[in-house]
Amino acid sequence: xxxxxxxxxxxxxxxxxxxxxxxxxxxxxxxxxxxxxxxxxxxxxxxxxxxxxxxxxxxxxxxxxxxxxxxxxxxxxxxxxxxxxxxxxxxxxxxxxxxxxxxxxxxxxxxxxxxxxxxxxxxxxxxxxxxxxxxxxxxxxxxxxxxxxxxxxxxxxxxxxxxxxxxxxxxxxxxxxxxxxxxxxxxxxxxxxxxxxxxxxxxxxxxxxxxxxxxxxxxxxxxxxxxxxxxxxxxxxxxxxxxxxxxxxxxxxxxxxxxxxxxxxxxxxxxxxxxxxxxxxxxxxxxxxxxxxxxxxxxxxxxxxxxxxxxxxxxxxxxxxxxxxxxxxxxxxxxxxxxx
Amino acid sequence: xxxxxxxxxxxxxxxxxxxxxxxxxxxxxxxxxxxxxxxxxxxxxxxxxxxxxxxxxxxxxxxxxxxxxxxxxxxxxxxxxxxxxxxxxxxxxxxxxxxxxxxxxxxxxxxxxxxxxxxxxxxxxxxxxxxxxxxxxxxxxxxxxxxxxxxxxxxxxxxxxxxxxxxxxxxxxxxxxxxxxxxxxxxxxxxxxxxxxxxxxxxxxxxxxxxxxxxxxxxxxxxxxxxxxxxxxxxxxxxxxxxxxxxxxxxxxxxxxxxxxxxxxxxxxxxxxxxxxxxxxxxxxxxxxxxxxxxxxxxxxxxxxxxxxxxxxxxxxxxxxxxxxxxxxxxxxxxxxxxxxxxxxxxxxxxxxxxxxxxxxxxxxxxxxxxxxxxxxxxxxxxxxxxxxxxxxxxxxxxxxxxxxxxxxxxxxxxxxxxxxxxxxxxxxxxxxxxxxxxxxxxxxxxxxxxxxxxxxxxxxxxxxxxxxxxxxxxxxxxxxxxxxxxxxxxxxxxxxxxxxxxxxxxxxxxxxxxxxxxxxxxxxxxxxxxxxxxxxxxxxxxxxxxxxxxxxxxxxxxxxxxxxxxxxxxxxxxxxxxxxxxxxxxxxxxxxxxxxxxxxxxxxxxxxxxxxxxxxxxxxxxxxxxxxxxxxxxxxxxxxxxxxxxxxxxxxxxxxxxxxxxxxxxxxxxxxxxxxxxxxxxxxxxxxxxxxxxxxxxxxxxxxxxxxxxxxxxxxxxxxxxxxxxxxxxxxxxxxxxxxxxxxxxxxxxxxxxxxxxxxxxxxxxxxxxxxxxxxxxxxxxxxxxxxxxx
Lengths: 340, 792
Known about the structure:
Number of domains of chain B: 6
Helix content of chain A: 40-55%
CATH topology of the largest domain in chain A: BirA Bifunctional Protein, domain 2
CATH topology of the largest domain in chain B: Phenylalanyl-tRNA Synthetase, Chain B, domain 3
Oligomer: heterodimer
Shape of chain B: elongated
CATH superfamily of the largest domain in chain A: Bira Bifunctional Protein, Domain 2
CATH architecture of the largest domain in chain A: 2-Layer Sandwich
Number of domains of chain A: 2
Largest sheet of chain B: 7 strands, mixed
Order of helices and strands of chain A: HHHHHEEHEHEEHEEEHEHH
CATH architecture of the largest domain in chain B: 3-Layer(bba) Sandwich
Shape of chain A: rod-shaped
Helix content of chain B: 25-40%
């Protein structure tokens, strides 16, 4: 019995040395460890053995040795195969581009979202408003009297049903005041229309972003704070702002807000007409007549409003020189605005 | 508007102050200064000299050889000016001097050396007259020696600044040097001096001018006075220089004088030749007529334009321009002087209709202070008296003061100012600022009462908030401490439509690589024609700049299709979209039925039309399932002429139409490109946002594997309603059927087949194919009536 076991061991080693494929190893495993394999056969013979205990141990040792040897050989073979795969692998070229082009947002969307984000973080709601409005909302409710030059035909597009295309986002002020009452903080981006000739700097269709804050003690000091904070966030720098008196019928006092020119740092350059400042945002304390018209108690509440030129902001932010690119529909121009 | 610092200096002593930084402060406190121009800095070494002799140049017809006495020496000058004469006093640029870009040096001209240059007014920059040398004899004050630098005699050096007219819209008082001087006096804390006046009270016993104001609704005040025996023909040099520096031109003494007073006090004045106009009516005419203004242009006068007439003969358009026939000529010796306040709105309407804006009309439009009429007359008479001693007032100051602006008094408290400003401005500062600006201020503790000066009361300062502006602009916004508000911070939410539109943009851009574009709110009928799209009837713009852009768009798609065509060489396959406003006719109340829509168009030269259509369908379905968590439904539809008559489908959610999907009419598609496929959809974002989004419902995933069974059916593909098939299958198969998916569509030789994958799963056990046999049989039976026959 012992001799037989020894012989089997030797023949296994010889066969193992010849088995160089996974299939051969599997065949070898079946030959020795399978149900009808050599090891099973030995087990069958065990009952005839003299020293069953020793023989049994020897068979078990053989079984373990065979199992281990086959699994070692299998493992070695896999390793060799993977190494061969690595050696024979094709080297890829990451510089070859085949990916599909990304989509793009309109630059106005991107600029609006930046401003909206800042104001949302400061507790402002975002409002939506129509583009076609009536005389009352666009002018009358904003303390723009009947004979004000802003109503002249050359500035406003009038429709045959008596309505008009809104000339400024301020047209939404009355609607929003009536909708929410005081206190109130809201911004409302929107498209505006002015009947004028188009060139690189002028469009008849452009975007503004209006904002209002009304509460019991809103002051000029607050107005400057909110404007400066918003612009610093949008331009990602500590912008300097300055207020100058500006006349708009719906605010009192009214201001023109300038920011220091980023291109020259305030030294003066062609972009800022050598003044070091860029006019960006008319604003002011909401005129008491406008508050009254919106149903707000002027003895109790004050508020500020501003009208940011969103199209102008997008031009400054992205370095767009020709305003006509915005409404051109040209994908060569517009597909560049991917980030958001 | 141009303003002279010298002129302002007549009324406020600004000596010792940096004028340029004063002007910059002016921008921050009053109105935007667009430009600062230094005058007279570029000329030097110009002296008073006398021409002793004039000889013709032997060869040149133009040139003269002069001996000129410049005080310390007689020099040879070669001069080409036509008006040279012996004994003439001229402005001589001496060797080493500067005239603009030219540095004067001895220079040979046609063989003769010239040691200097005799100058014209234009060369010195004090007028645009370059017809000959400046003949300064008549302008020369007595006792000036030859060789005196002309800058010592005349106000050639000045700082001129230009103020943006728009920023003065609400400040009629600032359309004058005197008004500006008041601002500078306030800003610097210096005293404002009054102009010299000639009191007209002394003429009250003379006979009045015949003035009849008929159109009392358009006139606040009309005053007139007659002056005779005027002999002076030209204005003093300094007056001419100021007028020129401020953008006007010297014409003749009387015309210059009225212009000068207008620029100084802001009151337009008109001088009629008394020989032609000796009485005045102010009226409108029921019938239109032609009228020649003093610029020689014939203008059409209509029934709304206010006219000045004399014996019913029109002599001026009130507040705009005088007539040619009655204008001041060089030989005029007597004048009828008008100083009036016309209604601002009426003047503006007249100028708009005439297309004629003048310095006078610009001021009237701003609503002038009627109190100015008399002051301006008295100022003009004082100036006249200084310049022409012989002139004689021959009438009483005739003053038809139709209506006065009411005096405005405003009361406010310190607390009001504090609340508005958010900072502490002392009572002393408030009083000082307002007083300096001409307000009459009374203070009682923290209670203020102010009377608004007449020049601010016509429309500018009428309420308390206006006072805040006066206080704060002078205080300086740069000096404000800034604070965030103390208002409580409350949670905010976007409007649903706004957040839906934002998400739609994200899905279109991020998931489907579309490009967002913007187009106009009007249809472009020219581009529509090119695409074979008819521009639908809709609300129109009545004052559009081009006839192609009159109709407001009904749908987003036509402009997007035009963009697609313009971009067709951009890429083989691309998609564009826009969320914008459209109008679908009028509502019952007559207002536009404005609707927000998402329009999306996809173009491809690589994909087939059906493939493109199905891709667009998937995108639409994704918008609905991502934002609303709901299923999309389709039903055949017919909409616009640019849509394919067969392949246009309404998009519905919960049975409500929220848009449509279509491919273009073949004509439109061919007009875009012969070999392309296009598909598009529109989502009506308000209708979309009105649908309540379903809550996410969580179903515990089964711990047991699902079994997929594929079955292929012959079917008429075009007639299948997939959603109905799914519903029918689920009813037939029961709860174990968890999902039905479309695997494949096969079409050949007129017959077509479709493969569905049915997924079954149980929460209790692992299913076997055998036990599902009854379920699949039931499905087949249920689908047969829908035209699907199991392929064996």
